[in-house]
Each structure stands twice: as structure tokens, then as C-alpha cells.
Amino acid sequence: MSPRVLLRPVTEQDLTEYFGRQLDSAAVARLRAGVSAPDGRIRTIVAAGQVVGYIAHFRRNGQPEVSYWIGEQSRGRGFATGALEQFLREIALRPLYARIAKSNVRSLRVAQRGGFTVIGEDRFTDARGQEVEEFILELGESRSG
Prior knowledge:
Elements: E1 6-9, H1 12-21, H2 25-36, E2 41-47, E3 50-60, E4 63-70, H3 79-90, E5 96-101, H4 105-113, E6 117-125, E7 131-139
Antiparallel strand pairs: 1-2, 2-3, 3-4, 5-7, 6-7
């Protein structure tokens, strides 16, 4: 069972907290766009009273997508799994997609535990100008249970 996490609306202070730790300008742009998009949603992930990361829903090229990030000091404790479980109850839209760097095995496992399956591969250039290979995942119709 995943540890207890709370999802709450994001504040500007949260954005500063995330990006003090995460220097990925593409992620910053996605999150800021997600906060202001009419059909986007972003939540701060809180565990034991501490901000540990965020989870977001937005559209990329017209497709609904989910993305999450956990601060380095909080990784490996099940917070992403717990947050994704809650968030998927909040976001009823299916299919829903995710993109995960191939090197991020933990994040891939989180998505797969949430019911996502790998449907393809792609590449992108990160904020440091490095090419990154990624998996494209899809969550189809809601599962019972």
C-alpha cells in the first residue's frame, strides 16, 4: 500500500519550491501552462506536512497527458504512486498519456502500477541540450476494482 499523500491546489510559492530544486525549463513551462490552461490541472503533493512534488494534467499536441515529479530527497518512498492513484480518480478522461525517460525506471514502474502501458517511443532534447529517449504510455478505459 502507498503511503498517505495529500493533493492540494498549487500556489506560486509551490512553483518556487519545485523549481528551486528542478532546473528543467521545459517542465517549468509545462507547469505554468498547466496552471493557467482551462482544462489543465496541477496539484502539489504533500506527505507528512511537507511538499514533496507535483502532479499535473495538461494537453500536449491535443492529447491529454499526466506528468509527476518528486523531489530527490523524497524519492523511493511511494509518494508518486500514492499521488498518481489519487490523481487518476480526479481525472476521468481516458485515454490518458504519459511520457517517461527510458532511464527513469522508478517512474516507469509508478506509471505501470497505475495501469499505463507502453505504446511507443520518442526522443526529446532536455534543458541541457541532451537528447533523451522516452517511452510513451497510455492509460485506457477505467479498470474496475
